[in-house]
Design goal:
The protein is built from 4 helices and 9 strands, in the order αββββββαβββαα. It has 168 residues and is α+β, with helices and mostly antiparallel strands.
């Protein structure tokens, strides 16, 4: 008989499951239009970026959140999960945005918090300019085209990979 998982291990596994679902969907939805990197480090104790994509429309920073069965809304620019306000979600995303724009200034950045397993408003929402949506809404948003050609996307990926190494 196996010992039960510690809550932190269980949370990690649920989060990883959500990240994998998002990764599968965005890669499939953007075949030929993008380069993808996953779990990129922001440095010691600063966290990581779950999903980082470079598409013709710019750089997509996606923070995956797995909230099984819970309603996710935005009130007064703060994300609310169930009845609990979660200002730390946008604070974390702003650290990610800062790291990306420092590595590749001047490239459009599209930040998104992607909710897996939870319920979001049908048309998504925004908190502090950050898209809050589900996987389907995220892939729809990523369908917008843009002016960044494949060679430039490759250069952007190289700069991001150098500045944001794979998380350990």
């Amino acid at each position: 008989m196996r010992a039960p998982l510690a809550p932190s291990a269980r949370a990690f596994m649920v989060g990883a499951e959500g990240e994998q679902l998002i990764a599968d969907q965005v890669v499939r939805a953007t075949v030929g239009r993008g380069f993808w990197m996953f779990n990129r480090s922001l440095g010691r104790r600063a966290g990581d970026i779950d999903v980082l994509g470079v598409l013709d429309s710019g750089i997509w920073i996606v923070d995956a959140k797995h909230y099984r069965g819970r309603q996710v809304t935005v009130k007064d620019d703060i994300i609310v999960v169930g009845s609990r306000r979660r200002p730390g979600l946008t604070e974390s995303m702003w650290r990610q945005i800062s790291a990306v724009t420092a590595a590749v200034p001047g490239v459009p950045v599209h930040p998104a918090i992607c909710i897996v397993g939870g319920r979001v408003p049908a048309d998504g929402a925004r908190a502090e300019g950050i898209v809050v949506t589900d996987v389907e809404g995220l892939t729809r948003a990523m369908s917008i085209g843009g002016p960044i050609d494949e060679a430039t996307r490759g250069e952007i990926v190289q700069r991001l990979a150098a500045a944001l190494p794979a998380a350990a």
